[in-house]
Amino acid sequence: MSRPRIVTLAFAVILAAALATLGCSSRKQVQTETPPAPPPPTETADTTPPPPPPSTSETTEPTETASGLQDAFFDYDEAAIRSDARAALEANGRYLERNAGRNIIVEGHCDERGSVEYNLALGERRARAAKDFLVSYGIAANRMTTISYGKERPFAQGSSEEAWAQNRRAHFVSK
Amino acid sequence: MIAILALFPSTPARTQTEVETEISAKGNVKSPLLLARFRGGSGAESFANGARDVARHDFELSGVFSVHDVEALEGKLQPDPAQQGTVRVEGIVETSGSGLRFTGTVYDVGTGEQVFQRLYPFARTELRSTMHRFNDDVLEALTGDRGIAETKIAFVRHSGKFKEVWISDYDGENARQLTHDRSIALSPAWAPWGTEVAFTTYKRGNPDLYLFDFSRGASFPFSTRPGLNTAPVYSPDGKWIACTLTRDGNAEIYLISRDAQTARRLTRNQRIDSSPSFSPTGRELVFTSDRSGSPQVYVMDTEGSNQRLLTLEGKYNDSPQWSPKGDKIVYASRHDAIFDVIVMDANGRNPVQITFQAGHNENPRWSADGRKIYFSSSRSGRRQLYMMNTDGSDVTQLTRGEESFNPATGPRSRRRVPTAKAAGSG
C-alpha cells in the first residue's frame, strides 16, 4: 500500500517527461508516483556523479513541502554520506542559509530488507548522519529534528534494486 | 508410564501406560493419534462434526501427533501391543440444558487403557475455545507439557496507509484489531500475564512505546523519549521491559521498570544495538548489534556486562529470540540476498537453517511451549504469518489477504499482574 501523495502539477510534468525519456510508460501506476531517476548505489564513493535533483514535491502533508530541499541517498545497510548525498546536503545547506527562518525535520528511511526494528535504528542513523553533516556545514542544530521511519514509509513500491535505492534516503520536511 | 521421551526428556510422567514414539529420519518425533468420528447426541450432530474438525486441526498443529481418521469405537477397546505408542481419541457432543457438553476420552491403544477423560460444558459460541482447551489438556496429560491452542498471538496488519496491532487465536482464527491509532503501530510484545501488549506507535508523531491493557481496552504511553522507543520485550517476571532507545544519539538497549520509574542503559557504543530478548531465567539478554560492521547476534547479562558475540556464521543475523526452555536461540539470517530462519544452541553452536528458498522468512518467535516457531514470510507475495515445527516441518499459513508481520506469541496462562501499583502509566 502506498501512502497518499500529493503530486504537484510541476512534478507531474517533470515525471511524465522523464518517464517518456526512460521508456518506462508501461510501469504500474503505483510505481510512476516515484521520482524518475533513482540514484545508483555507489561502489566507490567518489566516482558516482550526483543524481538529478530528486523531487521533494511529495509528502504526506502538502503544507509541509520544502521544495528547495533534496533527498540524500544511502548504500545498503549504511549510514555513511555518499558523494552524491554530499552534493545534495550541501545544496540543502545553501538553501537553509538563504531561508534562515525555516526549520526542518530530517526523516531517515530504509529499503524493505531486514527487520522492522533494525531498520528503525538504521533510519535513525541515516537521519542523524544527514543532520550532523548540515551542522558541520554551519546550520544550527536547533533548526533540525530527526525521526526514523525505518522501512515503514517507502517512497517507491516494489522489490527491485531501483525501488530499494530510492527508499534508502534522508528526506527533509519543513516544520 | 507414558513416555514421549525423545520429545520431552525432562517432563514428569503423568499416567500409567507406555506410549512409544516414532522417530522419523528427519529427527521429527510424532506419536500416532487415531481420531475417531465424534458422536453427536440428538440435536448436537453438527456440533459433533464441528468439534472434531477443530480437534483434528489442533492435534495436527501441535507438532506432537500424526493424526489418522477412524470410526468411533464400538464396545470396549481391545489392547493391541503391535500399536504400542499410539493413542486413540473419542469424543461425544450432547445437548445439556440450553447449552452443550463435550466428553473427550483418550486411550492408549497398546494397552487398551483409558488415559484421559474430561467433560466440558460449553455454550454454542464456545466450540473452538472448548476444543482448544481439550487439546491443551490432552497434551498436558500425555506429555506433562501443556499445548498452546488456548494461547493468542499479536501481530501487525498493514491496511491501507495504516499499520495496526491485531490479535488472534494461536492458529490465526478470530483475528481482531487491537489498536485504532490510524498511524504506524509495530513490534507488539506480550506481558507474561497475558492481558497486556507493549508496542511502538507513531500516533503522536514520534515512535513511542505504549502498553495496551486488555482489561481497560485502551493503551497508555510507557516511554515517549525523543527518538526511537522500539523493540519492547517483557522480562519473565514482568517487572521490566527491555527496549531500544535513541536518546543517546544511536540505538541502545535499555531496561525500563514496568512502573516506568527506573531506566537502566545496558549498551554503550556508536553502533546499533536493538531487538533484545530475555533468557527464560531473566538473567541474560540476547540482542542484535552491528558493532562489528554488520548485524550479528550478541548476548549479555541483564546488568549489561559480559557482552559477547554469539553467531559465528553468516554476515547478517538479526531478530534473535531465546527459546522458552532456554536451550536454543532462533534468529533470521540474510544469505544469498534472502532471509531465512535459523535455530542454534544457546551458546551459538550448531546453527541449523529451518526455512528454505521460499521468499524472505523473518521475525521468528517461539510458541509458549517451544514446540513451534511462528514467522513471517513473503513466499506467497506480501508478508503473511506462518507457523512450523522447530525442525522446519509442517509449515502452516495463518493469515491471508492484507499484509501481516511481526508475530508475537502469547503466554499459556493468564496470571496476575506482578505488582499492584504497576499500572501502565508513564
Tally of strands of chain B: 31
Secondary-structure content class of chain A:
alpha+beta
Low-confidence stretches of chain A: 1-66
Strand residue content of chain B: 35-45%
Query: Residue share in helices of chain A?
Result: 25-40%
Oligomer: heterodimer
Tell me the layout of helices and strands.
The complex is a heterodimer of chains A (175) and B (426).
Chain A lengths: L8 H14 L6 H4 L39 E2 L9 H16 L5 E6 L6 H22 L6 E7 L10 H7 L1 E6 L1
Parallel strand pairs in A: 2-3
Antiparallel strand pairs in A: 1-4, 2-4
Helix pairs in contact in A: 3-4
Chain B lengths: L21 E2 L5 E8 L2 E2 L4 H17 L3 E6 L16 E10 L2 E10 L4 E10 L4 H17 L8 E8 L2 E8 L6 E2 L7 E6 L5 E6 L6 E6 L4 E6 L5 E6 L5 E6 L6 E6 L5 E3 L7 E6 L5 E6 L6 E6 L6 E2 L6 E7 L5 E8 L2 E8 L6 E2 L7 E6 L5 E6 L6 E6 L6 E2 L5 E7 L17
Parallel strand pairs in B: 2-4, 2-5, 3-5
Antiparallel strand pairs in B: 1-2, 5-6, 6-7, 8-9, 8-31, 9-10, 11-12, 12-13, 13-14, 15-16, 16-17, 17-18, 19-20, 20-21, 21-22, 23-24, 24-25, 25-26, 27-28, 28-29, 29-30
Helix pairs in contact in B: 1-2
What does this structure look like?
- The complex is a heterodimer of chains A (175) and B (426).
- Chain A is α+β, with helices and mostly antiparallel strands and 175 residues long.
- Helices cover 36% and strands 12% of the residues of chain A.
- Chain A contains five helices and four strands; from the N terminus they run ααβαβαβαβ.
- A four-stranded mixed β-sheet of chain A has the order 1-4-2-3.
- In chain A, helix 3 crosses helix 4.
- The longest helix of chain A is centred in the C-terminal third of the chain and has 22 residues.
- With 426 residues, chain B is mainly β.
- Chain B folds into two domains: 113 residues, Rossmann fold (3-Layer(aba) Sandwich); 258 residues, TolB, C-terminal domain (Neuraminidase, 6 Propeller).
- Chain B is built from two helices and 31 strands.
- In chain B, the strands form seven sheets. In chain B, strands 1, 2, 3, 4, 5, 6 and 7 form a seven-stranded mixed β-sheet that branches. A four-stranded antiparallel β-sheet of chain B has the order 10-9-8-31, with no helix packed on it. A four-stranded antiparallel β-sheet of chain B has the order 11-12-13-14, with no helix packed on it.
- In chain B, a hairpin with a 5-residue loop joins strand 27 and strand 28.
- In chain B, helix 1 crosses helix 2.
- The N terminus and C terminus of chain B are likely disordered.
- The interface between A and B is medium-sized, with 23 and 41 residues.
